[in-house]
Amino acid sequence: MGLPLDEAVVFWRRMYGATMSDDKFNKEYKYNIRHGYGQEGKRTNYPPKK
């Protein structure tokens, strides 16, 4: 989507809305978002899909 990391986390949190608790989002999804931006795991910054 071309969003900076902080905005991407906020975007995806809002997309899940009330269907998911903050704790569950942080444990199960935030890591994967940060991984895609090269902030977790092997720290590879993957390019966005076209």
> With helices defined by DSSP (H or I, 4 residues minimum), what is the helix count?
2
Percent helix range: 40-55%
Structural class: mainly alpha
Number of strands: 0
In a few lines, what is going on in this structure?
With 50 residues, the chain is mostly helical. The protein contains two helices and no strands.
Written description of the protein model:
The protein has 50 residues and is mostly helical. The protein is built from two helices and no strands. Helix 1 runs antiparallel to helix 2. The longest helix is centred in the middle third of the chain and has 15 residues, at 22-36. The radius of gyration is 11 Å and the shape is globular. The mean pLDDT is 86.
Can you tag this structure with a few keywords?
mainly alpha, globular, 50 residues
What's the structural blueprint in terms of helices and strands?
Elements: H1 5-16, H2 22-36
Helix pairs in contact: 1-2
